[in-house]
Design brief:
Strand content: under 5%
Shape: rod-shaped
Number of domains: 1
Number of helices: 4
Radius of gyration: 24 Å
Structural class: mainly alpha
């Protein structure tokens, strides 16, 4: 027997929510690469300035600090909006009189998942913005370190 329309909607919505979980992991992985690259760049290119014109060095240090702060924000546990408590599901859909039909249950679960998807999208959009900002500050760090080497 073919899946019902509500079951298909639920499965597709869950596929989207699962994709968002992957997106969260990807953002964190990308930020880890940026943070690692910043540390490696600082190791190889970082020369503490001797004179009063060491602003490029401190620019690089400040940019790396911003990348580190962004990493803390991105790795901070996020509230992921999609979970079902088994007890709640049974109480709401099974142990009621009359019990919900399978079609109605899938429909309600799909609607719940759709709301969660929208909430998660807001979280991911903010984290994507932080990822972009981290990349910009990584570039500033590299420029600062290269300018500092040129002044040495």
């Amino acid at each position: 027997m073919a899946d019902s329309a509500a079951e298909i909607a639920f499965e597709q919505t869950m596929r989207g929510v699962d994709g968002q979980t992957q997106d969260l992991g990807d953002i964190r992985s990308h930020l880890n690469i940026i943070l690692t690259g910043g540390g490696i760049a600082a190791t190889f290119l970082g020369v503490k300035p001797d004179g009063p014109h060491g602003w490029p060095f401190w620019l690089a240090v400040g940019a790396f600090a911003v990348v580190g702060a962004i990493a803390i924000i991105v790795y901070w546990p996020v509230r992921w909006f999609y979970d079902f408590d088994g007890d709640d599901l049974i109480a709401e859909y099974v142990d009621v009189d009359p019990p919900w039909t399978q079609e109605d249950t899938f429909r309600e679960l799909a609607l719940h998942a759709t709301e969660s998807y929208a909430d998660n999208r807001t979280v991911l959009d903010r984290l994507y913005w932080y990822q972009g900002a981290a990349l910009v500050f990584f570039g500033i760090e590299i420029i600062g370190l290269l300018l500092n080497i040129g002044r040495s």
